[in-house]
Specification:
4 helices, mainly alpha
């Protein structure tokens, strides 16, 4: 049985990890709200876009050995370009179509991104950690 100090340390670590995870969930929810308010459609590819950004950050951090701040800037830059390409090539041509069409397209974009991630060597479906 851990002593008082070890229990306090474990409690604080779990508390901070839980707060950090809650902040991530809040950011995801805020993203859904912002996208819905701006476009009046639900984007089901949002989670897959976040996953793709995380894999770019993972690649820069682990495979390229970049520092943490450069990793984040790299992932933000690449995902800004990916987001613009998805909007211009996939979503813009269906503006004016029924809302269901846009929802189905975002689901399809999500499937495509998951497929791409599983095909890239070094990414796959395993769980990774950015250090």
């Amino acid at each position: 049985m851990p002593h008082g100090r070890a229990r306090l340390t474990a409690f604080l670590q779990l508390l901070l990890a839980g707060v950090a995870q809650g902040c991530v969930y809040a950011l995801v929810a805020l993203g859904f709200v912002l996208i819905y308010k701006a476009t009046e459609t639900v984007n089901f590819a949002q989670g897959d876009l976040m996953m793709l950004g995380a894999f770019f950050a993972f690649t820069a951090s682990v495979a390229l050995g970049w520092p943490y701040w450069a990793t984040i800037l790299f992932a933000l830059g690449v995902m800004a370009v990916v987001g613009m390409l998805v909007e211009r090539i996939v979503l813009r041509p269906v503006l004016g179509y029924p809302q269901f069409t846009v929802v189905m397209i975002t689901i399809g974009v999500g499937y495509v991104m998951r497929g791409i991630v599983t095909m890239v060597p070094g990414w796959g479906t395993d769980t990774y950690q950015i250090r």
